[in-house]
């Protein structure tokens, strides 16, 4: 219930004699529009020629498959990314490595860019930092087949974007091992308090929300 | 070589063909500029992609090919005629709207007279004695297209749009007629060519100097007459889907759309002729006529200069139309009616009495009398408005006062 004291009354603005003829207000409005017409900068970006600056530098765009310093594919075909992928869009065929420094290499490495949800899990899972998400967001194709990027395509994405090292995801505060330790401890302590408080319920057999956390 | 042209009838026919071509092209570009100006006002870019078939590489000419693409689109789209419409009227309505907008042009004096060989030709398709009355009559017939379209569509929203357009037209015809009557009284002429001649430098002042308030009233009613914002209640999207053209598609819709712009050009040319000296260029009639724009200049070049001068004036008004459209919100219906009946009509009646008195006393060319009288009338209106404490255009004074707890 809203009490009368909380109601703020807004009075209609008082119009001067000239305003009541409406003409001065039209002039006021035309002044604003003329100002926008001639002097205000355009906000729209002319897209293909001109790209908007991304607001974040960790934007998760199209994947790339990195090369090692010897220009070979860095991937060791460990299948971590394929396993981590929630959208099942990565398909790897491993083969015995022709090189001495590793056992396997990807004979085939396909990513279905249309299935991908750009969550970045593959990047997180990769033990050798071979797969990374670049900040490129404008990829197009004429067919669905064209949007399944194979190993060569992914390596060529690397060749085009190798000057930019994609920034890793920002550290998530409160997540153990990353971020602000003090803040994490604080959060953890609060969680434990909640768990303690709700423990009588837990004794009754229900799994409390706090315990789960 | 051009002797076959030395006949007013032939010349008029050729001129009318040229005018239709020129006007249809300028209408197409009006739509382009409307989109551009609306975009710029809203800090956008506007159409800028369509060039000329990519003939010039990546240079798009700021999207100047857009009207061609729009036209092609309108022609090629599916033309839907709903099954329950009144078919003959449904098809006729856009044509009426377009034709009526176009025939208004015939009496506009585009460039004085042209001496070809030994014949003095009027650069005007027709010069009837009742020139001004013709414009008035034709102008108010423009609503027929809207009404028939709305009626034939067999759709309540279309009908609402048509009804609104009719009510609006009826209300705004009155101040418009009176404003024009003021010019007629002051000039003593119905022929548009003569009205322009009366304003040429040396002959007299432009009518806008003598009758600024009448000019303003005519301008406002012109906005209403062309169904442009803030008077576009007949096609208020938020309330009536598309208004009278809800059921129209493809080229039929385009004809309504083009008709509106043709109407704008006619109206602008008309107001220029009446109040701004038409093809005349002497800065409010104060200075002498610009070289080549006097009445006695009838060479080809001076005719072209005159046409150019009138075109620039018309272009200014069209710009004004667009600027106002993207500035002002639409009137509410009661505000619309109040503005006409309680604002414009009383003021214009006052002006009419003033002018009649001026003509009777022989003061119709006196700046002091006209200006003084108009200022007095506006001041009196303003006084009434302030005393009544009600704005001319109306606000929500009939609503329960704010701050009163509703229902206790």
Give your account of this protein's structure.
The complex is a heterodimer of chains A (213) and B (408). With 213 residues, chain A is α+β, with helices and mostly antiparallel strands. Among the domains of chain A are: 63-161, Alpha-Beta Plaits, CATH 3.30.70.3270; 181-212. Chain A has helices spanning 17-20, 23-38, 80-84, 121-125, 151-161, 181-197, 199-203, 209-212, and strands at 63-65, 90-96, 104-112, 131-133, 148-149. In chain A, the strands form two sheets. A three-stranded antiparallel sheet of chain A has the order 2-3-5. In chain A, strands 1-4 form a two-stranded antiparallel sheet. The longest helix of chain A is centred in the last third of the chain and has 17 residues, at 181-197. Chain A is flat and about 90 Å long. Chain B is mainly α. Chain B has a domain at 3-23 and 73-334. In chain B, strands 1-2 form a two-stranded antiparallel ribbon. In chain B, strand 1 and strand 2 form a beta hairpin. The mean pLDDT of chain B is 80. The A-B interface holds A 4, 9-12, 15, 17-23, 26, 29-30, 32-34, 36-38, 40-44, 46 and B 37, 40-45, 48, 216, 323-324, 326-328, 339, 381-382, 385-386, 390-393, 395-396, 402-403, 405.
Provide key terms for this protein.
A: 213 residues; alpha+beta; Alpha-Beta Plaits; 31% helix; B: two-stranded antiparallel ribbon; 2 strands; 61% helix; 2% strand; globular
């Amino acid at each position: 219930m809203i009490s009368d004291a909380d109601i703020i009354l807004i009075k209609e603005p008082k119009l001067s004699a000239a305003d009541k003829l409406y003409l001065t207000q039209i002039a006021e409005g035309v002044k604003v529009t003329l100002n926008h017409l001639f002097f205000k900068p355009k906000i729209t970006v002319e897209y293909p020629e001109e790209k908007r600056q991304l607001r974040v530098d960790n934007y998760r765009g199209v994947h790339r498959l990195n090369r090692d310093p010897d220009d070979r594919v860095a991937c060791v075909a460990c299948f971590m990314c394929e396993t981590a992928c929630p959208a099942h869009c990565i398909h790897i065929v491993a083969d015995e490595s022709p090189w001495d420094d590793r056992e396997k290499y990807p004979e085939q490495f396909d990513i279905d860019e249309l299935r991908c949800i750009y969550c970045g899990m593959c990047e997180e899972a990769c033990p050798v930092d071979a797969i990374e998400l670049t900040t490129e967001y404008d990829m197009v194709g004429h067919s669905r087949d064209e949007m399944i990027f194979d190993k060569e395509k992914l390596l060529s994405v690397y060749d085009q974007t190798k000057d930019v090292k994609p920034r890793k995801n920002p550290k998530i505060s409160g997540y153990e091992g990353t971020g602000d330790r003090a803040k994490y401890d604080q959060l953890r302590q609060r969680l434990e308090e909640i768990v303690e408080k709700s423990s009588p319920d837990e004794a009754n057999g229900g799994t409390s929300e706090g315990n789960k956390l | 070589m051009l002797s076959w042209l030395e006949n007013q009838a032939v010349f008029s026919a050729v001129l009318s063909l040229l005018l239709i071509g020129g006007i249809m092209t300028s209408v197409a570009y009006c739509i382009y500029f409307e989109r551009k100006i609306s975009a710029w006002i809203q800090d956008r870019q506007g159409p800028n992609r369509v060039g000329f078939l990519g003939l010039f590489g990546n240079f798009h000419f700021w999207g100047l090919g857009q009207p061609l693409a729009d036209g092609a689109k309108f022609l090629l789209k599916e033309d839907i005629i709903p099954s329950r419409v009144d078919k003959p009227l449904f098809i006729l309505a856009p044509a009426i709207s377009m034709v009526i907008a176009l025939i208004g042009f015939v009496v506009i004096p585009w460039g004085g007279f042209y001496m070809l060989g030994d014949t003095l030709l009027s650069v005007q398709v027709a010069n009837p004695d009742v020139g001004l009355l013709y414009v008035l009559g034709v102008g108010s017939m423009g609503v027929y297209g809207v009404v028939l379209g709305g009626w034939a569509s067999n759709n309540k929203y279309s009908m609402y749009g048509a009804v609104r357009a009719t009510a609006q037209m009826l209300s705004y015809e009155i101040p418009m007629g009176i404003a024009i009557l003021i010019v007629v009284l002051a000039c003593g002429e119905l022929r548009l060519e003569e009205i322009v001649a009366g304003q040429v430098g040396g002959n007299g002042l432009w009518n806008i100097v003598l009758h600024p308030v009448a000019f303003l009233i005519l301008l406002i009613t012109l906005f209403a007459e062309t169904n442009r914002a803030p008077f576009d209640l007949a096609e208020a999207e938020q309330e009536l889907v598309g208004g009278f053209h809800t059921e129209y598609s493809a080229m039929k819709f385009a004809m309504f759309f083009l008709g509106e712009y043709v109407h704008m050009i006619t109206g602008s040319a008309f107001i220029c002729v009446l109040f701004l000296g038409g093809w005349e260029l002497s800065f409010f009639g104060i200075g002498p006529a610009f070289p080549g724009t006097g009445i006695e200049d009838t060479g080809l070049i001076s005719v072209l200069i005159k046409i150019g001068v009138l075109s620039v004036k018309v272009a200014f008004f069209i710009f004004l139309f667009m600027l106002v459209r993207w500035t002002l919100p639409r009137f509410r219906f009661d505000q619309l009616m109040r503005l006409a009946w309680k604002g414009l009509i009383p003021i214009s009646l006052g002006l009419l009495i003033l002018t009649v008195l001026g003509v009777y006393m022989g003061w119709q060319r006196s700046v002091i009398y006209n200006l003084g009288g108009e200022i007095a009338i506006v001041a009196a209106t303003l006084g009434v408005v302030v005393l009544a404490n009600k704005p001319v255009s109306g606000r929500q004074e009939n609503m329960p006062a704010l701050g009163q707890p509703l229902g206790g």
